[in-house]
């Protein structure tokens, strides 16, 4: 009898577990604006990293989405046909893990039945999540993955609001050459991950094209804790310009190392780091003169008809919503995330529905002036957009210094030598 | 069974640990059917000597020959498959197996192992277990056995290998007199099956009771060899080995008074 | 261990029923998410079954198995992407490449024991990752490799689901097949006492290298399938240490050195970790604490059931059955049986907690 | 290779090895005495870094003066963790303790992420980044520099290493810890309370990790997840140097720094691969390390 019992208990347990696993454990919940009447609702799904390695940037992305959602809902939502639709976003935390990202995207599509997808943060999670989106032919606009390889797979439903990685550091080279044509040598320090490799290769090719000599280009391992020997090697090459392609922590480590060993270049630039608030906070005065890049800065002079209108307005609203302290400078990740939703708005309104195929067609031919500048995707789905160059000024602020028509501050060049600061 | 055939010899066998000689220049000859006692004070190098013959430890010097074949420096498993088995002073049962499975491993991989299937090995294990008197324990886990049973299990594992030479390393240590009697009986029976035995033992009664010859190691070197009664009367041996014990006994007696 | 299995025919029966359920589940309609969750779970189980051979049966705590996963994934990635192979043969190549690599590194590394073996394997895995990331001409470096995906969706879902499930069955069958044979005995003997195993005539080096290579084969084929399933591989993802640790956790959760252990543990691990991301118990959003709770879960499991859940359940059931049989006829009911079971479980948990205490 | 390059690289090796010694020391002691691979170690280093960060940012205490604070706090935390959690698995197989500490690490890191957020933090003092110029060749625009803050960290690290060495070799506590490491049952006979000894050993290890965290906080930016890399480094260092003594850890750290710096000059993409390759070779060829012994002394 007991054997029989054990058997039935076990079956029961397995079934129960399966039901738990396969059914939505809880009704989808989002912050629905209560009491507001609306004709319909559009739900977006996003698996972003709120914990793990890229929790910080994932947070920027989520904040950008949320700000846009709040503002557009205040303004009455999307106009679909003759209906006004409020929007809602369902989030999951992918813990910065690509496998989880794919799993969650699959859940958003097949169980939560979201209408359209927003991207995660990070090139690798974007790879996994976008494959799921493409599989189900649901559009995904992502503002957190710039690897060119995401877009050269022939996918049709993936759009990115960040310019392609190889373009990241090109504007820096342009900016410096515009100021000083006597610059001859460049050193490039590259983190050993896919995104940074693309950035570095793009920069190297462009530098050569412009007649510069790349005197140093080496990879360093992700999670590196010491770059002193790289700095020593760079110093021996005495380059005019030092470019870093990696993550914010590496950029900080490299700057500290350059100061330690008194390596004086005319310009320092990093693909990721200078635009993040942490960079200034951690390096303080040592961050002066460093160049960063961004597809968007709050100083840029774009004008759109969207809920934000201008970069400045977007930045102010970010600060109003999330606090001055947290967004001293507003990182472009937040703006590119908001731009993703904006692109959806225009595409849905043009399509008159949220039908994935119709929205996809509209996205492909989108050409929109906005607070984020021109939003227009290449045939591969990646935004075509020049990068702005920013500089951390000794007065403590971040100014856009290139291109000239977007500049709101003077490009201080060359950077002061360490012992003259 | 011919008592003349030489089955195993060592010539000037030696082992050094970081410059210290644990065993040096030991010559030993085992003839088929022998029961030799290997005795000596603690630390005399008895177990090390067995270890270098069986390939447990790499030999440092000298030569080991088994049935005319030079097996110096052979790895332990090859020596074992040739037909040389041993037990361990500190018992080494496979705790996660049953008694029967423990013994079956010996039957699978020992001298006769290559031709045996798993099932045949298990059957062979039953035979051996019956012989050593452990058959009724065969389904128990090794970790549940008492020390006396574990010593028998060691023996059974070695016997299952169908060895021609068997080294017994203190199989009687820690047993009570009754258990020792039984164990001696078992050793005699094993010998009657034609297995050559080298027995390391501190229980002198057992040595005298079962061994034809005794071989004494002291500081890693041969001190004496011969019939038990003679060797044990040898002053050199008494001084090196028994002398210490007598001294302890005297000391104990003094303390009592 | 082997005998524990024999005594508990129940485990086998439950396993077969579970297998039946999993085999039939797609017929009742699964969401894409359920497909993915279960397919990933099967792949986790296969990597766990792989680890179980070297870590569970042979007793060598390998911490670098992710190297085999990554090599399997890259074999498939490179063959499909560069050489236009079709998918299925690449699985075999992935498994064999991993097995060959394991044999190669196993020869020196398997001479080490305990912590040293663990660290050496970890080191090998890390070094392998870095080399794959660095060797751009062959591997496309850190940027990774993208693969096309199988269409249409339903075909792909069922294909990967049943392929992965089939691999679980293969893993279980392989384990079962070997442990009843001499090789299996040699592994269990090595785990218990390697010196004693040698003295019984076991060529421990060969046994261990075979165990390691078979481990690598299973982990490697899981990696191969992962590559095509996920359609993207990059060194930092497929060589992530977490994959090894998850597999080990799955084995320990279920019970190391048993056939059912990795399966039960894999199911439990995947369900708990998936559940934690979505569930809102009593309306509380676990939010970013889901990873923390996973950590607490691991700590509790390790302290309370170091031999795994199967051991806990079977021992509780045995104990309850014993108590149950002693009781007078009137009180024998399902309810009292369950109550006895719960009490037995509590007792065993308390014992386990004290078991390794100083 | 120019003289300046060699000189600067030698300085780099020395400076790096100091901090790494402290980072690996506690790990080595716990491993040697308790036979545990302690994955919580990196998390303890991380907590030490945050103690220094908080004390510096909110109380304005000089980072070097925060070292005792983080050592004391982490000592206490280590004691509690051993007493209440790790003590339950002291006799368990290695895998059990490994996974247990893995679970603990997850918990600590994620709680830290909740409390401290995943913002990058760093400590920038008035003297950060200033350095002592040992030799300069203005013509070639090159020089050999010794950053003061790293020099300070090296001195503190050497001092702590020496103190730990004295603690382990000269004091009663050290003797009790060592004898427990050699043979816990024999140590029990001598009257030492094993559970207390273990708790103290773990606490000392955590305290050293705290000091390492404080030192690391001064030289680089950090966020809650950064400690894991140091656990990995500690592994390699302990194996290279050999288990069993304080000076061995220093030798291991020196060897590790040498490999890191040399590969960093030639082929920085392979620094970790080189370190791990050496680790595996070392394990196979000489498992006891450069200066290893069987037990702690």
Keyword list:
C: mainly alpha; ABC transporter involved in vitamin B12 uptake, BtuC; two-stranded antiparallel ribbon; globular; D: 297 residues; mainly alpha; two-stranded antiparallel sheet; 2 strands
Task: Summarize, please.
With 358 residues, chain C is mainly α. Chain C has helices at residues 2-7, 9-24, 32-57, 66-83, 87-109, 114-134, 136-139, 153-179, 182-192, 194-199, 204-230, 235-238, 241-254, 260-278, 290-304, 309-326, 334-355; strands at 145-146, 232-233. Chain C folds into 2 domains: 30-292, ABC transporter involved in vitamin B12 uptake, BtuC, CATH 1.10.3470; 309-355, no CATH class.
Alpha-beta content class of chain D: mainly alpha
Strand arrangement within the widest β-sheet of chain A reads 8-7-9-10-11-14-15
The CATH topology of the largest domain in chain A is given as: Rossmann fold
Q: Care to count the β-strands of chain D?
A: 2
Largest sheet composition of chain A? 7 strands, mixed
How is the biggest beta sheet of chain D arranged?
A: 2 strands, antiparallel
* Overall mean pLDDT of chain A: 87
Number of DSSP-assigned strands of chain A: 15
Tally of contiguous helical segments of chain D: 11
How many domains of chain A? The number is: 2
Task: Give the ordered list of helices and strands of chain A.
Answer: HEHEEHEHEHEHEHEHEHEHEHHHEEEE
User: Which CATH top level class of chain D fits?
Assistant: Mainly Alpha
First and last CA, distance of chain D: 40 Å
Mean pLDDT of chain D: 87
How much strand of chain D?
A: under 5%
pLDDT < 50 stretches of chain D: none
Helical amount of chain D: over 70%
Number of domains of chain D: 1
Q: What is the overall shape of chain D?
A: globular
């Amino acid at each position: 009898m007991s054997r029989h019992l054990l058997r039935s208990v076990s079956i029961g347990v397995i079934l129960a577990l399966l039901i738990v696993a396969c059914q939505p454990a809880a009704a989808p919940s989002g912050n629905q604006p209560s009491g507001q009447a609306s004709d319909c609702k559009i739900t977006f799904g996003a698996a972003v990293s709120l914990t793990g390695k890229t929790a910080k940037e994932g947070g920027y992305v989520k904040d950008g989405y949320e700000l846009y959602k709040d503002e557009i809902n205040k303004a009455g939502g999307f106009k679909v046909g003759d209906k006004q639709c409020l929007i809602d976003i369902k989030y999951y935390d992918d813990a910065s893990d690509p496998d989880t990202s794919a799993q969650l995207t699959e859940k958003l599509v097949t169980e939560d039945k979201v209408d359209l997808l927003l991207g995660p943060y990070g090139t690798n999670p974007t790879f996994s999540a976008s494959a799921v989106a493409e599989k189900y032919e649901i559009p995904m606009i992502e503002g957190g993955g710039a690897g060119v390889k995401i877009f050269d797979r022939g996918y049709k439903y993936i759009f990115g609001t960040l310019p392609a990685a190889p373009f990241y550091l090109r504007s820096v080279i342009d900016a410096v050459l515009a100021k000083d044509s006597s610059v001859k040598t460049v050193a490039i320090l590259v983190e050993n991950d896919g995104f940074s490799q693309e950035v570095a290769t793009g920069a190297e090719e462009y530098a050569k094209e412009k007649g510069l000599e790349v005197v140093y280009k080496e990879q360093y391992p992700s999670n590196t804790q010491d770059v002193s020997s790289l700095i020593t090697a760079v110093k021996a090459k005495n380059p005019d310009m030092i470019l870093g392609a990696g993550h914010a922590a590496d950029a900080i480590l490299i700057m500290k190392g350059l100061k330690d060993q008194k390596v004086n270049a005319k310009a320092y630039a990093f693909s990721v780091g200078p635009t993040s608030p942490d960079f200034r906070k951690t390096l303080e005065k040592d961050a002066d003169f460093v160049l960063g890049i961004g597809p968007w800065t709050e100083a840029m002079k774009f004008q759109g008809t969207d809920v934000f209108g201008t970069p400045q307005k977007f930045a102010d609203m970010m600060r109003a919503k999330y606090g001055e302290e947290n967004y001293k400078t507003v990182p472009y990740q937040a703006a590119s995330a908001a731009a993703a939703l904006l692109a959806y708005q225009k595409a849905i309104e043009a399509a008159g529905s949220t039908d994935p195929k119709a929205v996809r067609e509209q996205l492909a031919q989108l050409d929109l002036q906005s607070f984020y500048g021109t939003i227009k995707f290449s045939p591969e789905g990646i935004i075509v957009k020049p990068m702005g160059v920013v500089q951390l000024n000794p007065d403590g602020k971040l100014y856009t210094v290139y291109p000239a028509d977007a500049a709101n501050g003077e490009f201080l060049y060359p950077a002061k030598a360490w012992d003259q600061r | 069974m011919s008592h003349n055939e030489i089955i195993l010899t060592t010539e000037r066998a030696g082992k050094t640990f970081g410059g210290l000689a644990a065993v040096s220049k030991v010559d030993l000859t085992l003839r088929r059917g022998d029961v030799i006692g290997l005795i000596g004070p603690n630390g005399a190098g008895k177990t090390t000597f067995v270890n270098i013959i069986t390939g447990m430890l790499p030999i440092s010097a000298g030569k080991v020959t088994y049935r005319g074949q030079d097996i110096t420096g052979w790895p332990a498993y090859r020596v074992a498959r040739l037909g040389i088995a041993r037990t361990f002073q500190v018992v080494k049962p496979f705790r996660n197996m049953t008694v029967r499975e423990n013994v079956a491993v010996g039957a699978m991989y020992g001298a006769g192992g290559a031709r045996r299937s798993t099932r045949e090995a298990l059957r062979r294990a039953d035979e051996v277990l019956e012989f050593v008197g452990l058959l009724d324990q065969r389904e128990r886990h090794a970790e549940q056995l008492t020390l006396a049973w574990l010593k028998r299990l060691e023996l059974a594992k070695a016997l299952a290998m169908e060895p021609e030479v068997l080294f017994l390393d203190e199989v009687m240590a820690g047993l009570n007199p009754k258990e020792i009697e039984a164990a001696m009986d078992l050793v005699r029976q094993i010998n009657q099956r034609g297995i050559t035995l080298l027995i390391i033992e501190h229980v002198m009664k057992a040595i005298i009771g079962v061994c034809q010859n005794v071989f004494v190691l002291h500081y890693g070197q041969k001190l004496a060899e011969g019939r038990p009664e003679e060797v044990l009367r040898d002053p050199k041996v008494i001084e090196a080995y028994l002398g210490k014990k007598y001294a302890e006994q005297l000391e104990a007696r003094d303390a009592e008074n | 261990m082997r005998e524990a299995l024999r005594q508990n025919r129940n485990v086998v029966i439950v396993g077969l029923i579970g297998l039946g359920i999993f085999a039939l589940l797609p017929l009742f309609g699964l969401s894409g998410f359920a497909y993915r969750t279960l397919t990933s779970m099967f792949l986790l189980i296969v990597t766990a079954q792989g680890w179980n051979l070297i870590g569970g049966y042979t007793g060598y705590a390998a911490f670098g198995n992710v190297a085999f996963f990554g090599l399997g994934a890259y074999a498939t990635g490179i063959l499909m992407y560069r050489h236009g192979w079709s998918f299925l043969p690449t699985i075999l190549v992935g498994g064999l490449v991993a097995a060959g690599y394991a044999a190669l590194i196993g020869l020196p590394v398997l001479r080490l024991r305990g912590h040293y073996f663990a660290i050496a394997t970890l080191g090998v895995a890390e070094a392998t990752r870095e080399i794959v990331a660095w060797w751009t001409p062959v591997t496309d470096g850190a940027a990774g490799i993208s693969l096309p995906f199988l269409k249409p969706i339903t075909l792909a879902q069922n294909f990967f689901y049943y392929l992965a499930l089939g691999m679980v069955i293969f893993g279980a069958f392989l384990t079962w097949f070997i442990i009843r044979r001499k090789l299996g005995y040699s592994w269990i003997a090595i785990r218990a006492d390697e010196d004693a195993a040698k003295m019984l005539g076991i060529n421990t080096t060969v046994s261990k290298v075979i165990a390691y290579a078979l481990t690598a084969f299973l982990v490697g084929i899981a990696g191969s399938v992962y590559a095509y399933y996920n359609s993207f591989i990059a060194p930092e993802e497929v060589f992530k240490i977490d994959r090894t640790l998850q597999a080990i956790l799955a084995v320990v959760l279920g019970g190391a050195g048993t056939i059912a252990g990795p399966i039960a543990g894999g199911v439990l691990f995947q369900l708990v970790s998936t559940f934690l991301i979505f569930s809102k118990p009593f309306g509380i959003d676990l939010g970013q604490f889901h990873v923390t709770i996973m950590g607490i879960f691991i700590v509790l499991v390790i302290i309370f059931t170091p031999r795994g859940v199967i051991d806990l359940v079977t021992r509780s059931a045995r104990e309850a059955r014993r108590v149950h049989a002693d009781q007078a006829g009137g009180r024998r009911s399902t309810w009292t049986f369950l109550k006895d079971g719960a009490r037995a479980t509590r007792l065993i948990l308390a014992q386990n907690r004290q078991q390794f205490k100083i | 290779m120019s003289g300046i390059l060699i000189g600067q690289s030698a300085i780099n090796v020395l400076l790096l090895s100091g901090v790494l010694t402290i980072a690996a020391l506690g790990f080595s002691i716990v491993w040697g005495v308790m036979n545990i691979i302690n994955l919580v170690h990196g998390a303890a280093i991380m907590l030490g870094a945050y103690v220094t960060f908080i004390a510096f940012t909110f109380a304005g205490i000089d980072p070097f003066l925060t070292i005792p604070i983080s050592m004391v706090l982490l000592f206490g935390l280590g004691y509690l963790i051993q007493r209440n959690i790790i003590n339950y698995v002291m006799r368990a197989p290695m895998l059990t303790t490994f996974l247990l500490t893995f679970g603990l690490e997850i918990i600590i890191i994620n709680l830290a992420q909740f409390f401290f957020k995943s913002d990058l933090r760093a400590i920038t003092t008035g003297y950060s980044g200033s350095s002592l110029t040992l030799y300069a060749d203005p013509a070639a625009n090159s020089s050999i520099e010794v950053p003061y803050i790293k020099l300070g960290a090296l001195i503190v690290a050497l001092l702590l290493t020496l103190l730990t060495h004295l603690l382990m070799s000269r004091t009663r506590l050290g003797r009790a810890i060592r004898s427990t490491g050699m043979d816990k049952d024999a140590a029990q006979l001598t009257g030492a309370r094993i559970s207390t000894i273990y708790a103290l050993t773990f606490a000392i290890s955590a305290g050293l990790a705290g000091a390492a965290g404080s030192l690391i906080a001064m030289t680089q930016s950090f966020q809650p997840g950064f400690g894991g890399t140091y656990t990995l480094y500690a592994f390699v260092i302990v194996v290279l140097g050999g288990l069993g003594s304080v000076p061995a850890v220093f030798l291991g750290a020196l060897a590790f720094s040498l490999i890191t710096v040399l590969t960093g000059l030639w082929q920085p993409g392979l620094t970790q691969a080189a370190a791990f390759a050496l680790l595996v070779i070392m394990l196979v060829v000489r498992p006891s390390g450069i200066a290893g012994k069987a037990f702690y002394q």
